[in-house]
Amino acid sequence: IEAPCAEDGGMEELATEKEAEESHRQDSVNLLTFILLLTLTILTIWLFKRRRVRFLHETGLAMIYGLLVGVILRYGIPATSYHHKTPPSCSLKEGPASTLLLNVSGKFFEYTLKGEINSREIHNVEQNDMLRKVTFDPEVFFNILLPPIIFHAGYSLKKRHFFRNLGSIITYAFLGTAISCFVIGNLMYGVVKLMQVVGQLTDKFYYTDCLFFGAIISATDPVTVLAIFNELHADGDLYALLFGESVMNDAVAIVLSSSIVAYQPAGANTHMFDASAFFKSVGVFLGIFSGSFVMGAATGVVTLHCFPLLETALFFLMSWSTFLLAEACGFTGVVAVLFCGITQAHYTYNNLSEESTKRTKQLFEVLHFLAENFIFSYMGLALFTFQNHIFSPIFIIGAFISIFIGRALNIYPLSFLLNLGRRHKINQNFQHMMMFAGLRGAMAFALAIRDTATYARQMMFTTTLLIVFFTVWVFGGGTTPMLSWLHIRVVTVSRLQLIFPFCVCRVDVDPDQDLQPCVDNFQVLQGDGSQAEGQSKTKQESAWLFRLWYTFDHNYLKPILTHSGPPLTSTLPSYCGPLASCLTSPQAYENHEQLRDPDSDLIHSDADLTFMFGDTAITANGASANAAGGSGWSANGKRSGSTSEEALERELDSREQELLSRGTRLVFPIEDHV
Amino acid sequence: IEAPCAEDGGMEELATEKEAEESHRQDSVNLLTFILLLTLTILTIWLFKRRRVRFLHETGLAMIYGLLVGVILRYGIPATSYHHKTPPSCSLKEGPASTLLLNVSGKFFEYTLKGEINSREIHNVEQNDMLRKVTFDPEVFFNILLPPIIFHAGYSLKKRHFFRNLGSIITYAFLGTAISCFVIGNLMYGVVKLMQVVGQLTDKFYYTDCLFFGAIISATDPVTVLAIFNELHADGDLYALLFGESVMNDAVAIVLSSSIVAYQPAGANTHMFDASAFFKSVGVFLGIFSGSFVMGAATGVVTLHCFPLLETALFFLMSWSTFLLAEACGFTGVVAVLFCGITQAHYTYNNLSEESTKRTKQLFEVLHFLAENFIFSYMGLALFTFQNHIFSPIFIIGAFISIFIGRALNIYPLSFLLNLGRRHKINQNFQHMMMFAGLRGAMAFALAIRDTATYARQMMFTTTLLIVFFTVWVFGGGTTPMLSWLHIRVVTVSRLQLIFPFCVCRVDVDPDQDLQPCVDNFQVLQGDGSQAEGQSKTKQESAWLFRLWYTFDHNYLKPILTHSGPPLTSTLPSYCGPLASCLTSPQAYENHEQLRDPDSDLIHSDADLTFMFGDTAITANGASANAAGGSGWSANGKRSGSTSEEALERELDSREQELLSRGTRLVFPIEDHV
């Protein structure tokens, strides 16, 4: 086979076919490896969920299994079974083109460019075909795996707490990530200089490389922490702050890093950061934002009623086309998809039929679940199968210290500034929790693996991998102890069901949406006479940015883009009459009376809910909660965490007694070892 | 850019990067084109569904839009905007390897083999990069688009009518497809000989090529017809026969064609069909079947309760791994996935939680919908963008006549033979309908495009494309007139709702599963005293093959693989006691009493349902229907279509009157122009 008879066309063709078949089979085996990994993860997670094990999240588990398989692939399979063969090589004077024709005695074969490989890798090509095969093209992450994850994050952002904390979230995400990036970049530059002095650095490492590292490692991904928050129904504001920040700073990190790469001076010697380039990239970022926003709004208008399958398919296609459109325009698809998700959750969701809202949610939930666990198990695998790791202890230790300092300089000063303007202060314990929840995950990894051609990038990749492992396992696993150590109040399911025995709350749904019916039930029980009063009060307390946005959105955007909200004819001034009636959907008039806008909850019933989650941050809401609550529920107006916790505990107990004395049926979950 | 300075590494790198970026952007635009095509299709279909337009199915529409875009791409875009560039070429003595290294002044680039191109195509490479770009790698169809379609088909086969007609379906699918393949192959060989005489043939065309064409064109795909059957609630048996045949013969055609290719004699001169090779491939086929069956059964055991997301993810992964496992073993993944789907529908489905059954169905429904419409719109596009069409009028006309004769020699003789053994005869009109419903679709196309390297294959591809277009548009569009012309009874929704006013039947769900609750409601209304009698009668009438299978499945397989069915301890002989209690799931004991096995409907309530669909084939069921029906429903025991139709019409009318006189509320669909 090594040197087929060039004259016999049939034999040669057969050999090529055999080789292609072999390669296809190898691909199947590789994919199968990952699928078995995911299957194992799912089975174990299922066991963990049944046993209520919280110290290890599915992503952490996926990494462990990935590591194990990586070890097996690396050391377990004897070297003889590898496909030893030096690929033929040919020389050209011209630079590489995307397509290359190979002329083998008159027959032409087409080859496509896969990428440059350096001299070390050529050795690997010869030696270890198997390990190279399980290494994916990094673009797979950006074009296939990240989009559903990011879209799902955006689509899940339809939360009352998110919009209430919008200002803070944007501050953390934009300003905070920029701070983190520069702090880490500069500290790492110091580390690199130190390494040069010690003589540990064997190749070039520029200042822009350090900044790039700062950008990629600033993308936080507290998926583990948030899962536990969800399960324990921890504070809604804290959840929204963490989730919102992590979603947004992914977008910021990706744009930051790509602008650092794209606008670095062409001359190889300077490699300093260019401020004007940065502002250019901010412009691009804003361009993407508004483009995606318009795109998302456009899809909101194009929804179909009556046929759930068509609605779901269209929804899926519109999300995907946002991604592709952005990529085609030279923007960043992942960022576009994020904002498309947010817009769709806010507008399109209202236009979909009930069946379709469920379908789309479930579809993206499954895609997100699979993609996320795939990435994490791939990370585990990559630690052993990636060929060009550069473990540099000084760099790694320096990076760990830098990200700690960078996170601290992001959270604490910004929280202080935000607290100056916020009515609901972000208290010390919340700040510590946010500091603690600075895990790194899929986005940092995907950005790091995108380019591993140079020495500096390879060192960054190895370090990023280790940081992800460490933060996911250690910080992720420590969330539950940390929550109780910081006295952050969690409401467990059995507790909730004692108070609201009329509804069975499921375990694994996010707190806001799940508790809503319970709270409604409760208000029916209590009689909500004084609610109107409470409403207006809470409305005044809302952040001004949010209030401004809410009014504009509710009065103008929603009526134009969805079938909900008041008709435009009633919100626009009278001289806009014809335009208004032209833009308003006929259904809006019908809805006007009986419609309870789902987003009106954003403002109205916050008081009750925050009280429900009864934590240390509820003080500002105390008065209105009191007004809304009615009988038997005295609001605790104190700032201190432990005192209000005790007060709530007492409240819960008395409420429990009251219900029991009335003979109400109590619903307990089957297994509740909380 | 054409000749970058080879000395300046930075500039060169930048040029490569730019080119890669450009290529990525181009890919995005291409995908976007397809997504917009699908979006257009969905929007139009939505309009059609609302207007109840039945003459054009979504797949037909997708083809039309594909054609339009193909025309625009081909003729609309000025040639100047193409990316004119001759790819560099280099020569080697050795045969092509899957990986090629390119050495450009010391730097190495890796290239992967895309395939052989002939001299005509090299010209195209130079001329029309854009058109080549929208042409997908044919393996995309087999590895990405076909699996969800075929899996969904298998997963939808859980139908009472399917299992009752299993023997006939297998006969049509295996024997019938083999007949069709040989008849078409031999007829086409005659056509090819004729073309040689006339001098229309400019290159080689062997006998095995003709047989190959027979195999690929024997895969029927009456998706259009079945959609209309679904909508009109046409006869269940006919539906099952057509659907079952089309699903199964895809598998047969794919194995047939690959065995014809794989086992053709290596010497280029003989190219005759080898019978021993055929039997070898039958062995492979049986191997795949049993392998997939075991695989599917294994996944049936590995289901998780309580967490729908995990269940759905696991279900998806198991289906996919079946595909990959088969490919890795050198079998045919698509076939494995089909049987995996059938097994999962039969066993796994019973183990899933209610939420998951819905989720999995919806997930695969969306995937199937998107994949199918993508393939059909790609077909439309390919007619203009594919570069190597060979339109040969004689070959095309010959092919049309051959497939007609092939289908006739499949349906009529086999139906005659089957009718000798069947209790429920397949009557003349049903046979005509089956003959009519021999559309060609996705599978034929995918098989034809897989290899278009030689002259013969290119001619086949062009012909296949035209056959698909013609059959989908003409036969697909003519289904509704044909149904009424053949007097095949359809039950429309408004009609059904008149009879069973207590349930609102949705329009676009398949007849069996949707009607089941209605029938149950009806029985509650009527009182089902004499049902036991009807049961035993219908049981005796069932086909022996089915009865044998049903007993084995119900007594042994279901208890082992699922939580339903009777416990093994009661079905196995007493000396197997310990083994039995070990294999039985604890839930089976609990279920034993109250369980209504969902598949028991397969036999028990057939009588009522067949009566409901009241068509010409119900005669054999007449007696039991009479027994089960009870009051006011006289069974019509005559063979003739029109008479029984009139009788049913009268029945419906009298029933309607009766209900109206009782003052029952009647539910009408909003728009029903049926």
TrEMBL record, chains A, B:
Gene3D superfamilies: 6.10.140.1330. Residues 624-645 are annotated as: Disordered. The keyword Transport applies. Belongs to the monovalent cation:proton antiporter 1 (CPA1) transporter (TC 2.A.36) family. One of its GO terms (biological process) is sodium ion import across plasma membrane. Residues 41-485 form the Cation/H+ exchanger transmembrane domain. The keyword Zinc does not apply. Residues 624-637 have a biased composition (Low complexity). It is found in: Cell membrane; Recycling endosome membrane. Pfam families: Na_H_Exchanger (PF00999). Keywords: Antiport, Cell membrane, Endosome, Ion transport, Membrane, Sodium, Sodium transport, Transmembrane, Transmembrane helix, Transport. It comes from the Eukaryota. It is a multi-pass membrane protein. It comes from Salarias fasciatus. GO terms for cellular component: plasma membrane; recycling endosome membrane. The chain crosses the membrane at residues 29-48, 60-77, 140-157, 169-191, 211-229, 282-302, 314-342, 363-384, 390-409, 430-449, 455-476. NCBIfam families: b_cpa1. This is Sodium/hydrogen exchanger. Its main location: membrane. The gene is slc9a7. One of its GO terms (molecular function) is sodium:proton antiporter activity.
